[in-house]
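Feature request, filed as a ticket because there's no other form

It would be nice if the structure record came with a short human-readable summary line next to the tokens. Right now we just get the raw output. Example of a typical job, pasted below so the devs can see what we mean:
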Amino acid sequence: MSASSANAADAPPEFWSLAQAAIALRRRKISSEELTKLCIARVKRLDPKLNSFITLTEEDALMRARACDAVRPAGMLHGIPIALKDNIDTAGVLTTAASKVFRDRIPSQDAEVAARLRTAGTVCLGKLNLDEFALEGTGTTSNFGVVHNPWNLDHIAGGSSAGSATALTARFCYASVGSDDGGSIRIPASFSGITGLKTSLGRVSTRGVIPSAYSLDTIGPMARSAEDAALVLQAIAGIDRDDSITIDAPVPNYSAALRAPLGHLRLGIPRDPFFEKLNPEVAEAVEAAIRLLRPKVREVRDIVLPAFEFVKDGSYDVELLHFHAPLLERSPELYHPWSRRQLTGLKQVTAVNYVETLKRLRECRRDIRRVFTQVDLLLLPTKRDTAPTIQSTIDESYQRPPSNTSAFNRFGVPAISIPCGFSRAGLPIGLQIAGPLFGEPQVLALAHAFQMATDWHLRRPPGFA
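Raw output as currently delivered:
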């Protein structure tokens, strides 16, 4: 545990890190019920401006918190208030994926990640807003309304895990869990100034999470720091015998990995094409981060990553249509117009071209393994720009730069976004660190080292401080 966590700041408990709150709970300096009440009061007071929650489960959360207080804490997550993205099934609790299609859907069973977090002792405050069915990356296509960025309410929070990022930024909860098949954890982490980890394909069970793209889907922690993300990942990682994606690989001690030496690490900078068309302020912040980390490692050098050649009428996004086809056929009017347009366009994908895409996915995962024989980790901007305005996103006048996140879903490797600066307009900028398959320990260690040397992750939006 870092010194910053061992000595909780004088700030109110809502502003503690998860690690700080866990220590206070274990030492009986505060109760889970007290923490939960503070979080709920903050949600009720401030979330009308942000729209991060779809469902607040106040009574269930307080009942769970009291039950946690009645027993001795069994782990670092015991009694910690969290909230979950609303595409993750929760038994007996409305789970809508932000769609009218599922407006009355109440699962009878927890998703595996929800069950593991419950076993770890967390207190779930409710379900968080997202782009409908996690199909977009803006937080503007939910049928429960747009999610606002706490740093500037006129700007998007990023998506699809928009509510998760906003709830963490506004200090409504201490952690969340998001899904990511193209950047849905890292995009809102970058735009909202929090820490978000896309895990390796097969590291965390996707069973009970409403599917997006089967070949790319991953589940990962969203938190206030890499240290907190490590605690959450410890609870959710590992084989699920009833899941077809998880791999039976040992789960390391992620918190212990934060203290691993960095002097042997070789860092690769994939400038082509990931540093092209950068907002100058993003470029400045990321270059400063590289300069800060350079003395801590063995080597920093430029490197080229395998390029993925897309197949005409062969998009892997057709996997989205596989799940939605019967629902879309029956009730197209229930879908958000943006989602309906995207799904309808996927009908032109052909089976032969889709199979070619899957072949190329396998090949790029082979090729990235070769890259990680030359370097240990990669550093690059998470997004090439800061968060655009909500209006320019909805009317599609904003010209999006190329993605810096989706490549790592295709590679199947872990990638984290951590804050590394702010624009002059006060919007967060994200640094992305990627590693080899199951390289979460190294990714978290470098992210933690950066956060121990900077305070970007500790800053809070003025209107929500």
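Something like this underneath would help us a lot:
The chain has 17 helices and 13 strands.
Residues 1-8 have pLDDT under 50 and may be disordered.
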